[in-house]
Amino acid sequence: MAAPERVCITLQEFERFAHLPENADRIFEYIGGKILEVPSNPLSSKIAMLIVGALLNFLKHHDIGHVTGEACGYQVFGERYAPDAAFISYARQPQLPYDQPYNPNPLNWPLRLFRHRIQKRRCGSKSPTI
User: Fold this and answer.
1) Do the strands 34-37 and 28-31 form a parallel or antiparallel pair, or are they unpaired?
2) Phi, psi of 51 (to 5 degrees)
3) For the chain, which terminal residue's Cβ has fewer other Cβ atoms within 10 angstroms, N or C?
4) Which CATH number does the domain 11-129 belong to among 3.90.1570.10, 3.40.50.450, 3.30.360.10, 3.40.50.20?
5) How do residues 55-79 score in pLDDT, each as one tens digit?
């Protein structure tokens, strides 16, 4: 039996779902009206941390912004993303919002490693997106 086609949801429905107590330790993205759980694996995690280590070393000598990991989500054009790592400058955001799960400010530099090869489709679209 084929899996049922996923239904588009609103951003408000996503926010309610992502904030349920049983989802507290899970990371989700809201892309194209769909909820996507962010999987990880040891290789992508290791590569992300090697890049983050180099970035943090640079920032020790040039204190120009914040670095966040995959537990920090970002709001980008009405969608919610959880990059493996990200950089946001102090000029764009002097202090991180510690009371919000998804940062409302767009990041300067996202690091997204390919965690899986599943093609995602936007709601109402027949063409795959990445």
Assistant:
1) antiparallel
2) -70, -45
3) N
4) 3.90.1570.10
5) 999 999 999 999 998 888 899 888 9
